[in-house]
Amino acid sequence: MADSPASSTGVSDQAPQVDGDRQQESVVIRFSGDSGDGMQLTGDQFTNASAILGNDVSTFPDFPAEIRAPVGTIPGLSGFQVNFASNDIYTSGDEPQILVAMNPAALAANLEDLQPGGVIIVNDDAFTKNNLRKAGYDENPLDNPDALRGYELHRVALTTLTRTALEDIEGMTNQQKDLCKNGFALGLAFWLFDRPLDSTLSFYAKKFAKRPQVVEANTRALKAGYAYGETTESFSGRITVPARTEVPPGIYRRITGNEAVVLGLVTAARKANKTLFYGSYPITPASPILEGLAALKHFDVRTFQAEDEIAAIGSIIGGAFGGALSATASSGPGIALKSEGIGLAVVLELPMVIINVQRGGPSTGLPTKTEQADLLEMFFGRNGECPVPIVAAATSGDCFDITIEACRIALRSMTPVYVLSDGYVANNSEPWQIPDVDAIAPIECDFRTDPKGYQPYMRDPKTLARPWVVPGTPGMEHRIGGLGKQDGSGNVSYDPADNEHMIKIRAEKVARIADYIPELEVNGPEKGDGLVVGWGGTYGAIRAASERMQHEGHSVASVHLRHLNPFPRNLGEILGNYRHILVPELNLGQLSFILQAKFPFRVIQLNKVQGQPFKIREIVDKIRSILD
Q: What is the pTM of this model?
């Protein structure tokens, strides 16, 4: 499955050829239209239906940053790509094989991505002179035989057909009926790929329970789209993607990265027997974490929406000082604003988790697009010598495990910990096997209550962590602050030797985390011609690319770093076992910079900063160029 770095898969890039009913291992479909066309809901429901059938699924929602861009324009497009398969998959697919385009802008923006020979389903009604102009077309490409040569084009009057299906529903305007045309398109897609309607019909009934007219309209539109597929002669067959045959037993659900972070934080707090305090300021794409936690008050969760990022980091410092497992989340710009507070947390040596859901930058940048360009900010984005442990999620499902790991490190070593996610990991969804919570090890983090021999900065000889004392504990009153201090007593000290000692002891505390984190595992041969090293949301594309090269007979392996500071203790040994080291990153080479500085091996970079994840073929092509 795609939810765990330990998964395995085959990769299928075969495009569908609709020449009679046929079966395929995998299909990638992309829904694209105006941001008011309901593409996110459409893709979400198609994904649910596929997951219920037993397919592995991986999704890529892609939506505009503008609250409401001009209707019919390329900047206003919202897209949703689904890769569904009968085998385990790692990514949402390199390119769609089926494109459902609700207007000319959707066709113009996505045609270049469509696989040669792919299927195009367009809303013919939307190709008006005005919409064509907005999309940059001088003439209607649907009427030009050369414009779409090599593709299988299906012109469907989605708007007209939807209105016809709903014509006898009293009190609905044409504008209201048009909002249901995504349901017609979804019903057609359900027929084409032999998906059941039941889950979506249940969704409509539940979501719009207080608006029966809306339930009726969407239900009719969905069924009308399905019936259109059955009766039209424009499609020569259906495509079936069978269920997976080898699935680990258990209960599964679809999960996004942000949802997994929410569950990870709550689980960690329960395992540590601590109240969870979460303070944050809303920011894309991290806001759903606050929204998810706010609904879980019955699990002893306390949430606080701060007035700004500085107040948010201040609130979790107070929460940690008061004895709660404290956390916050933001994106790159918000983390920058929190940096002074994070430096204070390092000096105070209090346990807290800081989640960075990275997006395109710098500054406001690309709020709804993905990037991995905050790694150096995590390493060095604070004044002074100020080391912070860093972990990174590999997939959406892995956000659950890595969040618990971050809490475990924070509480064991008494330090703030960064969790790196990104826009792709946060919004992508995949099947996730619900874990046996009883099998998750408790997190031991008792408060110190014995005043005998107590000093605020006395240290555990193994981890170098200082004791955690709840304010007001009799006989253990203490003062904390950001000024330079003396080890042990914590008294303010301007002694140069004290300052250097405290800087070194905090750095050593972080370094010692490597003693108890897992060693790095290699996917592929233990020695060979090439090693692909990745971190974060590049996991799927890297693993699929390296396995494709292995299937072709090349001695290429991959490793994925979930612990970035400190690195796993065997990383250097692994790097030395390969002739070439390739590091693909959605930045200009930040992990490469760190690896090159720390290890005596030449690193080859593959960099991309387009707000889009890597395609498998981009990494495969780079590996081939290195090995040739």
A: 0.93
